[in-house]
Amino acid sequence: MAPAIALKTLSLFSHIFAGALRLVQTITCRNKTGEDHSWQKPSPEDRRSPCPMLNALANHGYLPRDGKDVSLARLVSGLQESINLAPDATIFAGLIGLKASTTGSAFTLHLDDLAKHGVIEHDGSLSRHDVHFPPPADNKTFAPEIWATVVPLLNEGETISIETAARARRARIAAAREADPKFDMAKADLRASAIETCLYLRVFGEGTEGRARWEWVRVLFEQERLPFEEGFKRSDKMLTISDMLTLEEKVNAVPGEDSEESE
Ligand code: HEM
């Protein structure tokens, strides 16, 4: 199937599934109040992913704290309750993530399954090592030494502009390309990486204008915690796929040495 058709089909499926899920949630009146969403450090047995946001949500109990057997429905409700991400956006990413599942069920995943390289996980991450570099490879755990190279690029004051975020991402990809003899980012990886930048800009910024609060972004990456204490509030407005696509266009439009073009 041509990639554009596959994307449209996946998007349509996500939309239908999200509608059905919303209906089930309404009918069953699932009331989530009373759940404990305090931040708790994961135990060594808990599973965590290469995604700072999913890890933060597990640390807050919006996703199973043990990171095991996470269903698509739980991803949808967890991301909606915590940051108001639209169900179809979660389903879109979640369906891709499920391809890495090792749970024995096609409908659930363990968070660490998401470290499977080439499904969503890719080289050139802002805060993780590449899959093969440096050995022994750990492409899943927050790597302070990688993040330390990115911090000066993002830290331009109280907020991060789209331009700064785009340049930091490109610089990190260029550095990984230079350092890692087995560096490999296919087009889909580059797109995933751009979307990840859009996600943090949208969740911690102002609509599709960027201006993500630096302190909040830092807390997410460094502590895998939602920055409620620092003033972050769940957006009243749903964060949509369309927001991400608008941001993606803006991120890709930032001029400069472009790693995508060199593919
Ligand atoms: C179902 C939803 C989601 C799935 C399945 C998912 C999965 C992933 C995976 C597998 C990665 C690793 C990519 C890499 O190699 O760097 C990743 C990275 C990332 N994700 Fe998520 N994610 C989801 C939602 C979100 C949301 C809502 C945010 C909002 C802030 C987010 C922010 C990020 C960021 C910033 C990175 C880049 C980390 C880095 O470069 O070091 N993700 N995600």
UniProtKB/TrEMBL annotation:
Record Gene3D superfamilies:
Chloroperoxidase-like
Cofactor dependence is on: heme b
- Which Pfam families does the UniProt record give? Peroxidase_2
UniProt KW Kinase keyword: no
Query: In what residue span(s) does the Heme haloperoxidase family profile domain sit?
Result: 35-246
Signal peptide extent = 1-26
Q: Which domain of life is it from?
A: Eukaryota
Family per similarity comment: Belongs to the chloroperoxidase family.
Name used for this protein in its record? Peroxidase, family 2-domain-containing protein
Organism listed in the record: Parachaetomium inaequale
GO MF entry, a single one = metal ion binding
Listed A to Z, the keywords are: Heme, Iron, Metal-binding, Oxidoreductase, Peroxidase, Signal
Q: Does the keyword Signal apply?
A: yes
- Entries under InterPro entries matching the protein: Chloroperoxidase, Chloroperoxidase-like_sf
Annotated coiled-coil positions are none
